[in-house]
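In the previous chapter we treated chains in isolation. Here, by contrast, the input contains two separate entities that must be folded as one system, with a combined length of 790 residues.
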Amino acid sequence: MSLLPFLAITLGAATLALLSRRRPRLSLVVGLAGLALALFAALAIRSGEAIEIGGGTIVTTAYGRLFLVLGAASGLAISVIGLATSWQRNVPAATLASLGWTGLALALPDPPSALGATIAAGLTGILVTLVAPLDERGVEVGARELRAVAVGGTLALVALAGLAGGLSPSGTGAGTVGLAYLAVVVAVALRFGTIPFHAWAGRLSQSAPGAVLPLLQAWLPAGFALVALAALGGPPGAAGAVDGAPAGLLARSAEALALERGLVVALGAIGLLFGTFAAWIQDDLEHLVGYSIAQDAAFVILALAAPGPEAWAPARSWILVFALAKTGLAAWALVLGTTYGSRRIDRLDGWARRSPVLAIAFVLLVLATIGWPGSTAWAARTDLVHAAVGDPLRTFVVLAGLSSLLYYARLAGIGLRRPADELGGRTIPRLRWRGSLQPTPDAPDRAAAMTDAPPPAARPAEGAGNRETPLAPDRAAGTSGTWKPALVVARLAGTLRGARIRAGELAARFDREWHGRRAMLASLLVLVLAGAAVLSAAGWPEIPAAAGEPPPAATTGPGSP
Amino acid sequence: MNPVLVATAVTVVAGAIVAVSARDARAAVLGFGLTLVGAPLLADPVPDPLPLAARVVAAVLALQLLRVTVRATTSASRGSLVGWPVETIAAAAAFVVGAGLAGGLAGAGSPPGAAGAVGAGSSAIILGAGLSLVTLAVTPLVQGRDVLRLGLAAGLLLVGGTVLGAGLGGPPAPLGQLVIAGLTVALGAAVGTLCANSYAARGDLGLGGPGAGIGGRGTPLQARPPVEE
């Protein structure tokens, strides 16, 4: 069974990385090596295999394999980018554990069991909200995430168990089924943080580092949504294919659930429209990324409103493209923010002129998110709207979906402005790569400027700061011969000090070189992620075919947790 | 009506009441443990020994993770916001509503419990206990002012969800039991880590601004003062 090595590697490496947290280097090596191994293990998964465990069946699918491959690859990429920008030691371990649980969920035919696995994935994902240095806000964000996972998980767990237990969409049970259906949709919306269930997601992007946003807001909720989609929507002709599960519920009860479906469509439209508004008004780059993820996740909500199985393949295609493109966007924001030493959008004048690699990556990411006519991403978005929304509102929802172009255009406009230092006005520091900008003789410290502190003009440049102040032995010890021994000692001390200064200069030079290369590596990784997102938007590697396949079919066991 | 099932339900709900209302953090964790260990038995039929053992071991592991955190703090906390008598009455009311829900679903032509796989009496008890757990979790989940209490409430909510699921959809298959066991361990790890980080970040387990959790007769969970030798 090719899935078992993947599960063993992800869960085992995650446990080891967490247990070795007190030794950061070891934890880092274990986490990154685990992610790399997980990628290879995911590539080795073969679809169509089934194994009996504990009276149930685990079945691998091509789509599950694709999800895990892309998830592991993007997790590895964002971890390396995080290593080069603002490292958070829990990211690889939490990514590994989450991928392990999600991999299990996508292979479980029984929806409530699969849902339990996605809840466990969400709980392990909480670890990434605890960032270093530890502060109260991190704990509060973790607590909010815990609330969202517990409430969303319980809602969906009870609803799916009720549906699996024989609630009938006809007769007097229709109202109960409608409530169960709405509960599942609200749970999915809560996990994605789509408006109006965005409170926890807003705090998340406020406090958590950008490297964790794709995992918490895209990949983990995506696994949750896939399970919900399999339970409610189901692929063409799959009604009843899943033993004991309500596959095809929406297809079988489209008429009975018309009111509830209308509410879900409204929820999706609100998420698309107000998501754009929320992203547009943000001044913080990572806030914008967070709301951008929440906005595009509203397409998944629309998929849950489609009455038939025609939304099955587009929704699953969109989920993969969406998760990959948003990972790229979060990585882009992370690198851009670190490069400019600020997450404030109004301080990024001319970023596209100064960082052409990031500019190209940005264009690719927008292209991957929106798609182009004929592409998988474009087709998925339009098919989902067409499947869920009737004619009078269809155009409105399509436009709401495209409204994300507004905030992308805003970012592009800021990037294409002439940088402030070229305008002769306020000078901005040159690009640095240390998380915060270093002051230069002709540029004030940005942090100091923000706090109205006097500019550190008199502060010497880093690395050469002591060049002007070596001890002058002759003057220090005087010229009298009686002080000759002291003079020798002082000269020796001066020599040692000079050697130390030279060593410090060499170290600083190496440090600068290394940081410069890290910057280049991070930018190139963002470009690679953006390229991968465009390829996925074009349908590579066989995303439409994998998305159209049915979910894993159970062979035994009607039970559900 | 199965008397063993009734006794289990009462024990599980009593543990949950202790978890949400005890001012002593160790007592709260103990009550939560009672709920965690008893929850898998709220099923008809009772799970096979092996999956049941997995659930119990997972519950003990989760409790150990919580115990490690509580050990580093003083034991006093605010406890329930409304007091244990109110929590008990709310749990009892929810139990009655849950039991009535079983009858209502049967009357609507949708018998709970995997299309009637669970007996009507058993289903009523299971649903009643599940709804009680969910009800007890609501107040600390919404208004909780310390991480431990919030984590226990999240745990009660999830356990209540699985119990309700067992009442509505029938007992979990063995593989489902293993998944719930893993979920229990993940819950313990998540709550334990949150608590440990809260302790490291601010010296107590409070949520919100300084002094959060202080009120009434209790104090927030604080770092245990060093023992002077």
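Residues 174-202 of chain B form the longest helix (29 residues). Residues 3-202 of chain B form one domain. Compare these points with the single-chain example from earlier in the chapter.
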